[in-house]
Structures are given as structure tokens and as C-alpha cells.
Amino acid sequence: MENAKKVPEIFGSMVFGDAVMRERLPKDIYKALKNTIENGEALKLDIANSVATAMKEWAMERGATHFTHWFQPMTGITAEKHDSFIEPLDNGQIIMRFSGKALVKGEPDASSFPSGGLRATFEARGYTAWDPTSPAFVKEGTLYIPTAFCSYGGEVLDKKTPLLRSMQVIAKSVKKILEIFGRDDLTPTTTVGAEQEYFLIPKELYDRREDLQFCGRTLFGATPPKRQEMDDHYFGAIKPKVKAFMEELDIELWKLGVMAKTEHNEAAPAQHELAPIFSTTNIACDHNQLTMEMMKKVAEKHGLVCLLHEKPFMGVNGSGKHNNWSLSTTSGINLLEPGDSPNENLQFLLFIVAVIAAVDEYAPLLRLTVASAGNDYRLGASEAPPAIVSIFLGDELTEIFEAIENGKGYDKKGKVYMDIGADVLPKIRKDNTDRNRTSPFAFTGNKFEFRMLGSSLSIAEPNIILNTIVSDILDRFAERLSDADDLPQAVLELIKETYSEHKRVIFNGNGYSDGWTEEAEKRGLPNLRTSAAALPYLRSEQNVALFERHGIFTASEVNSRCDIMLESFAKTVHIEALTLIDMINKEILPSVASYMNSLTELALRKAELGVSSGFERDLVKKLSITCDKTASSAAKLERAVNTAEKKENVSERAEYYDKDIRKLLNELRTSIDELEQKTAKKYWPYPTYADMLFYN
Ligand code: ADP
Ligand code: MG
Residue of the nearest CA to atom 23 in ligand 1? Predict the structure, then answer.
């Protein structure tokens, strides 16, 4: 990179972060704002006015003429409406103004976002409220203000509000535990680092495939002779074109304060990954949204298209997202790391066992936060963790818990005899050699890595759930430990009991094996294979009670979210069906017909000459049969879509799309792939898998 030396200067240059605030705001204003950011203190209007003015001046220096309240509706992506800073004067001139009121609250006419019946279109429009815990930034001439989005009745319409609530809830629960251990000086928080997988393909090929444009994935495509079997792409040398893309992506992300750290090629051809350095959950979530958006924008500048779909191509790995999650303190202590004293070790084990209990008790809930039409093609498909939620703890930690359960000390490889509560736990090694990549939820030394997320998913939902369920267990723990006489003894007993009760969720073996599915069933672990099966669990009694207990969602908010997710699932498959029908009728069948026509003409001319035409006749016969089959399946699919759309109940509709429509889509795919393999390249209307995956 030419500007390597400038990276520290570039980093965060478009962010209205702490350093800028300190420099630009009067001292008392800065203090008041810090108090709002750190302690949630309400911001007075005169303070907001000063902050807004400073923000505007700073943003204009970076070319901003507009501002936007940037929010995260239930679509899973972000939304924005831009307003300019201009304000008219009496004399027909204008000034550039940005008021505290405009900073703090906005009223986008956002009545068309999915609200799951919480808010009819004719009703109040909902408003956006500034989230000062995630810094504002300038992008493409606009000042972006991260905001939460609610209805006037206070109903949650977005993903940020519940995320912020869940962060508060877990911070409170962790604090209770820390206080029990005598640490009342610490402020807990949660940290997340989201590793992001994606595909890059040439734009000119993408532009020729309606399925990629409308559905984000290919609906057919014959298997190329080579896929990923040689493992030569994984961590392989990066193509110059892709390298140029990554370089620009890094710079754009750094400007926005996103700590893009690791870039490499992934397992599938044309697949790559970006991992950032972790940050607090709220910011990690905003930054992951920015990362996905920038990947798409920067790719276009390089003649490429970034595919974030979970399964753009059959037969090669799909893309996921790893949500690395930990409990920390604002002073930087990682609470999921063994400490230096017996007390800290007990505390560490207590936090770990709380996560184990939470994941076991709320497994269906965790599973459904990653449910989407696209992710259905990954989970359980021998490339991603199965749909069964289990935890990988590693041998060392498992041995420690087993020892506690059996009332024994932990004998670490015969070396250190460990009497928990009197000795110090060894640091859990981050051993990359026996890292288990097949576990949906793995302890990786000092954090848990939740690996079931699909690549296009907002990380908000899984983190809302993770925070809430762990908090639920910690509250229970705190209650029980609050009046313990002998704390270490009481904690040990609690760990022992909890571990015994929930150890069924621990699985250190190969999650891709068939044996595991059987074993999991024996253990009574739920296996919710598809989205349509998993999503309705959101409104189970247990879950509604959980959300209400912690003030995350009301029952009606839970219902609306469940409807939105089911609806979105059904719509996705609906669009896939219509796209495929269109491609079949407008391009595939006519193209194969032309090819058959040329073969037929040749066969006839050959007959005139008395030359054998077995090859042409044979091929025409085969193609003809497959074409007939394709046409009749397409007609059947069309009728099925009509049937689906008549179903008023959204769960039934989702189920019909899942079972019946998807079956027809698969049948069609087989026929079309057969046609592709038998049709001469110059007649086949679409770029093939080989074209798209192995470009230069
Ligand atoms: P690995 O490559 O072995 O999975 P890394 O250390 O490279 O592990 O981290 C992977 C991701 O986990 C990175 O995004 C990193 O920032 C994140 N991460 C590391 N520590 C934490 C933590 N304490 N909390 C949240 N995320 C973390
Ligand atoms: Mg990882």
C-alpha cells in the first residue's frame, strides 16, 4: 500500500469519536456527554445543541452537506433518510444549521418498514432516537447518526433498541455476581468480534443472472469439474484483483473506525473472509453492518460483486459469520479468562457454567435467531455446524468440570494437583491444533464463538438473545448466592449442580458426523432443521416469559417479530420461485429449443446425404424429454405458488414454502442442471459455475 505510513492518520478520520469530542467540545459539555454515554444520563437540550453544532462543523470539514438518522429496522439491514443542513433566512439566503433537537430525535416517514402488525401504515410514523454510545461518522457527504427506531406507543420496531436493552440487562446481572465476589468497582459489558465470510464474482457475469440479482443465490448451475476438493483456495495466495479490493475495503473501513484486521481466502473458490478486532456489542453490530455495506460498494468499484448470501452456489461451502462473544469490564478485564487467584477462578467457572446452562435451557431460542431461508442450506450440510445447538468446551475445561462434579481435584496431566478454591487454574490454552471447527458454540480460550450465524444476518438478534439468556441464569445464581455463608463452597456446589443438570449440551466431538445427530437425540437435544420449524418457537411461553422478565420485548412485540421473520422467510422462497419460473420460460427453454432446432436441422440434412445422425437424434430426444419435464414442473410450481399465497396463516404459509415449494425448486434444479450439461455452451444463456467461481 502506498499510504501505509498514513494508516494511523486515516483510522477513524471520519468518526466523531472521543478524541474529537474532547478536542471540539467545551469541557463541561464534553463531561455531560460522556456521562450520557457511560451512564445513560439523559442529555439536556442546551448540551445537545452544543454537541450538534460541533458535529456539524466537524462534518462539514469532511464534505458533509447532509445528516441522517441511521437505523436498523426489521429488514436486517440499515435504513437512512438524508436531510441537508440548509435553513432559509429572511433575505432568501440560507445558513447551514444542525440543532440539538434534530440530533436527538428524528421522524422518518418510515411507515413501510415491517412492523408485524404493531403499527398500521395510517398510524403514527415512529421516531428515531440518537444512540450516543455508537459514534457518529461521515460517509459520502453525509453525517450519520446511529439511532434506535421506536413507535410513538414505545413499541420496538428495530434491532438496536432491544440490543441496547439486553446489554444493560446483562451488565446488571454480571455486576451482581462481581459484587458477590467482592468486586463492586467494576462496570461489566459484552464484547463481540464478528468474522464475516463472502463471495466475490465478476460483475459482468452477475449482471447476466437474474437469480443472483433477485435472490442473491444461483437457483441452478451444473457442478463444474473442479470445486473445492483440493483445498487449494483456503488461505491461498490472493488474486491481484481481490487484493486490490481488500486494500480499498480496509481503508474505507479504517476511515469509519472499523478495526478490520484479518483478510484471507476461504474454503470455497471465490470465497473470502474478513475479521475485525472485537469491540463492545453495540458498536460491533453497527460496524458489521458497515462492513457488509462497504464490501458491496467497494466490490463494484473493482468490477466485482460481493455476495453475502449464505449459499450462493450449491456444491461448494456457503458463507457464515462467527460471533465471538465475551463478558468483560469497561476497564478491559475479560471475565471469560481464568484469573490469577482462586477467587477469580471460581468466578470464571461460574460464568462459564452460566453460559452452559443458558445455551442448554434456551437452545431452540438460540437456534431460531440464526434461522433464515439462506441459512437453511448451510446448517447441517457438512460445511457448517448442524442445527443442533451444542457447546464445545475443550478437554481441559471439561476435565475441570468433571472433577468438580465428581468431587475430586483436577489433576492436570499428573502435573499440578488442583484443589479448586485453594489453587490457581491453569490458563486455558488456545490450542489451534485441536480447535473444533464443527461446533456451533465453541469456547475458544477466552470467549465463546457462536458459529451458526448466516453471512447476511444482522448480528443484533443473536446477541440480544445471548445477553438475555445468560443474564437470566446469572440472576438466578446471584439470588442463590446472595446469602451464602461460605461463598467458595456455595459457588462450587452451584457449579456442580448446574454442570450436572446441563452437561448434556456439551459435545467435544465431530459435529458433522451422523453419529452425533443420533447421540443428540438420545440426549434430548432439540434438532430444529429448518427455519419454518424453528421460528415459531420465538413465541413459546418460556421465551415470552424470559423477554418480559427482562424488559426486552413485550408479548405483542415477540409476536410481531415472529410474524416478520416467518413472513420474510416465505417471501424469500416466493421470490425464488417466481425468478426461476421466469428464467425457465424466457431463457432456458427457448435457448435449449434453439439448440434442438439446430441439431434437428443437421440430422435432417444428414439424412438427405445418407449419413448417420444417431448422435443428434439421441441428444434431441434426451433434451426434449428433460425440457418437457422442466416445463411441466414449472407449471406445477406456478400452481403451488398460487396455493401458498392463498394461505392466510403465516406459519402455515412458511411451512408450505419450506416443504412443498422447495421440493419443486429442487426438482427443477436437477432438470435444469441436466439441460445445462447437455447444451452446447454457445446456446446456454447463463454464466456457469466454472465461469463465476474460477475467474482471473
Ligand atoms: P481465531 O482466529 O482463533 O478464531 P482470533 O483471536 O483471531 O481467533 O479472533 C477471532 C475473532 O474473535 C476476532 O474478530 C477477534 O477480535 C474476536 N475476539 C477475540 N477476543 C475477543 C473477546 N474477548 N471478545 C469478543 N471477541 C473477541
Ligand atoms: Mg473463528
Answer: 326
Cα(91) to centroid(ligand 1), Å: 57
CA distances for 16 relative to 49, 59, 143, 193, 567, angstroms: 16, 8, 10, 22, 38
- Predicted confidence (pLDDT) per residue in 655-680, tens digit: 999 999 999 999 999 999 999 999 99
Amino acid at 542: Q
Confidence at 202, pLDDT banded by 50, 70, 90 = very high
Going from the C-alpha of 588 to that of each of 136, 581, 595, 676, the distances in angstroms are 48, 10, 11, 9
Tell which one of 279, 447, 459 to mutate to probe ligand 1, the residue whose CB is within 8 A of the most ligand atoms: 447
Q: 206 near 212, Cβ under 8 Å?
A: yes
3: helix, strand or coil: coil
If you write DSSP's letter for every residue of 53-74 in order, what string do you get? HHHHHHHHHTT--EEEEEB-BT
| Ligand 1 site, residue 278, Cβ cutoff 6 A | yes
Strand ranges (E), 371-510: 391-392, 410-412, 416-418, 441-443, 448-454
Spatial distance between the Cα atoms of 696 and 692, rounded to a whole number of angstroms: 10
Query: Tens digits of per-residue pLDDT, 272-284?
Result: 999 999 999 999 9
Give CA separation, 192 vs 28, 288, 321, 359, in Å: 32, 10, 12, 17
Q: Is the dihedral of CA 158, 377, 287, 62 positive or negative?
A: negative
Summarised one tens digit per residue, pLDDT across range 40-53 is: 788 899 999 999 99
Three-state helix/strand/coil letters over 108-144 = CCCCCCCCCCCCCCCCCCCEEEECCCCCCEEECCEEE
Q: Which ligand is nearest to the CA of 445?
A: 1
Phi, psi dihedrals of residue 694, rounded to the nearest 5°: -120, 60
| DSSP bridge partners of 197 | 273
The secondary structure element, H or E, covering residue 7 is: helix 7-10
> Phi, psi at residue 341, to the nearest 5°?
-135, 160
Is 568 strand, coil or helix?
helix
Compute the distance between CA of residue 188 and CA of residue 590 in angstroms, rounded to an integer: 63
- Ligand 1 atom at shortest distance from the alpha carbon of 278: 16
Residue 393 has pLDDT above 90, yes or no: yes
Entry pTM: 0.95
Q: SS3 string of 383-409?
A: CECCCECCEECCHHHHHHHHHHHCCCC
